[in-house]
């Protein structure tokens, strides 16, 4: 045991992403070149940046656009055996305009594609923990709430 009381505190990493919609209420999933599953635009929060700033930066880096980033939909406490403690923030990107859609330029080092999908199919399209988070985020978008989750589930 250590004499440093701070040694027992978690050092959770924070990540932030954005949930975008099309005009048919489908959600955007991106195809990262470095993962074997579909994801949402986003990434880790860098030192000195807020989660919202990180989300906006990641959208610009990955999609080449800078749409307004809306309110927080989900905060998810999501420890991972291989990555440690994490807290994940998911913001509302709203419905992308035709101008934003036409301006998308995928970050070649990060993404190989993107598509919009019906939320009812999300569990077939990505990993379970992300699918659970996206279902809650989709609902929060529609009922104007923010949800606190643990491992993608409300407690």
Automatic annotation (TrEMBL):
Superkingdom of the organism of origin: Bacteria
Keywords attached to this Swiss-Prot or TrEMBL record, sorted alphabetically, are: Hydrolase, Magnesium
* PROSITE patterns attached to this UniProt entry: NUDIX (PS51462), NUDIX_BOX (PS00893)
Q: Name one GO molecular function term.
A: hydrolase activity
Q: Which residues form a coiled coil?
A: none
Residues spanning the signal sequence? none
All copies of the Nudix hydrolase domain together span 10-139
- Give the transmembrane ranges: none
Alphabetized Gene3D superfamilies for the sequence: Nucleoside Triphosphate Pyrophosphohydrolase
Cofactor (UniProt) = Mg(2+)
Q: Which family does it belong to?
A: Belongs to the Nudix hydrolase family.
| Name of this protein | NUDIX hydrolase
């Amino acid at each position: 045991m250590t004499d440093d009381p701070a040694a027992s505190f978690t050092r959770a990493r924070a990540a932030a992403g954005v949930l975008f919609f099309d005009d048919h209420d489908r959600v955007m999933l991106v195809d990262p070149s470095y993962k074997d599953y579909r994801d949402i635009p986003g990434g880790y929060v860098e030192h000195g940046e807020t989660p919202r700033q990180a989300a906006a930066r990641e959208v610009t880096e990955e999609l080449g656009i800078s749409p307004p980033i809306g309110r927080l939909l989900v905060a998810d406490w999501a420890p991972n055996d291989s990555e440690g403690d994490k807290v994940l923030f998911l913001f509302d990107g709203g419905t992308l305009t035709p101008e934003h859609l036409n301006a998308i330029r995928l970050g070649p080092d990060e993404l190989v594609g993107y598509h919009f999908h019906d939320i009812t199919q999300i569990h077939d399209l990505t990993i379970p923990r992300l699918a659970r988070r996206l279902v809650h985020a989709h609902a929060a978008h529609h009922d104007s709430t923010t949800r606190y989750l643990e491992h993608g589930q409300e407690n």
